[in-house]
């Protein structure tokens, strides 16, 4: 099953009160395009307004709301990720209590966001900022999650260059009972040309996502011949053999985290679609409970996961890396996958 319905994240900047209405309208338009209707859209109107208002009140230098399509099968869902790089919240549990406010307001914002959300998560670090995640799904739909989807939790954030509308990075996550296969691709440059290359690479990957990783790279290389080319990485997790096979070409960074150590995945030099010196498959141990981090060069190379953060969702971990390590001068993608079998 292909899990990535729409890999690109819609980013809405919220710099002051004048952006609140824009945020509400944009979220509603995105959700309607995904397939949400009626009460779900009304709920998102309230959530987007509350999230944007909180950013204006507390973030200082503003923030952003990221809109992602979190649908699974025919179950339509939208997830809002509010990210600010403000002062942070000293006591998150206290802030969630209705009536508590540091700005002499009614103090119902965070509590109402939590109540209206079908899934809610918050993380705040003093001096770094606050992240809120809220999900709304269409009532009456069946999620249809397979056993592998329940045991392996992938999440991603993928935003375009600040001056572009389309993201030149691409992601595809495919899963079966035996294997989970992840592609991260970065079309050279940014804008429409890079986005087209990324889309071609994803399409070639999804023709056979569970083929050997080396063969997939060769297929994508042929597909991208004559284009501007791309960097990419493919990680394939064998569920029962507990190993990860990795092939990378170019500057996609990937690292496997276990309970006791972390290991960087080795890529080779080259440009897929133009010139590849060699296709080298590397195998790494993948213990139950491991985590995988993959990101493009729009994220700082210092990005890392703290394994002690068990309990946080893959999306929250990806959002924290985005908040702390986003370069703001290129397309940027971060993917986190958590093996939940021992967590």
What does this structure look like?
It is a single chain. With 343 residues, the chain is an alpha+beta fold. It has two domains: 10-137, Histidine kinase-like ATPase, C-terminal domain (Heat Shock Protein 90), CATH 3.30.565.10; 147-342, PPM-type phosphatase domain (Phosphatase 2c, domain 1). It has eight helices and 17 strands.
- Terminal Cα separation, in Å? 24 Å
The CATH class assignment of the largest domain is Alpha Beta
Percentage of helical residues?
Answer: 25-40%
Instruction: Assess the beta-strand content as a share of residues.
Output: 25-35%
What is the CATH fold-level name of the largest domain?
Answer: Phosphatase 2c, domain 1
CATH superfamily of the largest domain: PPM-type phosphatase domain
Give the helices and strands as they follow along the chain: EHHEEHHEEHEEEHHEEEEEEEEHE
What structural class do the secondary elements suggest? alpha+beta
Lateral arrangement of strands in the main beta sheet: 1-2-3-5-4
Number of domains: 2
Q: What's the β-strand tally?
A: 17
Average pLDDT confidence is 89
Shape: globular
């Amino acid at each position: 099953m292909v899990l990535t319905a729409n890999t690109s994240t819609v980013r809405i900047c919220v710099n002051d009160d004048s952006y609140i209405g824009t945020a509400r309208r944009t979220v509603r338009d995105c959700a309607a395009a995904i397939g949400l209707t009626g009460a779900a859209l009304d709920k998102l109107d309230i959530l987007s307004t509350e999230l944007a208002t909180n950013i204006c009140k507390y973030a200082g230098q503003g923030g952003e709301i990221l809109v992602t399509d979190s649908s699974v099968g025919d179950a339509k869902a939208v997830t809002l990720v509010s990210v600010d790089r403000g002062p942070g919240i000293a006591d998150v549990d206290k802030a969630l209590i209705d009536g508590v406010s540091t700005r002499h307001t009614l103090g119902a914002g965070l509590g109402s966001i939590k109540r209206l959300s079908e899934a809610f998560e918050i993380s705040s670090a003093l001096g770094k900022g606050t992240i809120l995640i809220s999900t709304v799904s269409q009532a009456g739909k069946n999620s249809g999650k397979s056993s592998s989807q329940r045991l392996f939790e992938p999440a991603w954030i993928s935003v375009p260059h600040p001056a572009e509308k389309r993201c030149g990075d691409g992601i595809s996550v495919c899963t079966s009972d035996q294997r989970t296969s992840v592609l991260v691709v970065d079309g050279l440059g940014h804008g429409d040309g890079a986005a087209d290359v990324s889309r071609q690479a994803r399409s070639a990957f999804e023709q056979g996502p569970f083929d050997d990783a080396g063969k997939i790279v060769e297929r994508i290389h042929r597909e991208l011949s004559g284009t501007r080319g791309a960097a990419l990485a493919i990680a394939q997790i064998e569920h029962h053999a507990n190993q990860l096979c990795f092939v990378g070409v170019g500057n996609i960074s990937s690292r496997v985290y276990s309970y006791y150590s972390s290991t960087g995945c080795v890529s080779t030099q080259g440009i897929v679609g133009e010139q590849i010196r060699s296709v080298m498959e590397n195998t790494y141990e993948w213990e139950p409970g491991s985590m995988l981090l993959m990101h493009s060069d729009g994220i700082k190379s210092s990005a890392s996961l703290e394994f002690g953060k068990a309990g946080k969702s893959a999306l929250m971990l990806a959002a924290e890396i985005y908040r702390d390590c986003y370069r703001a001068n290129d397309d940027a993608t971060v993917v986190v996958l958590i093996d939940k079998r021992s967590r």
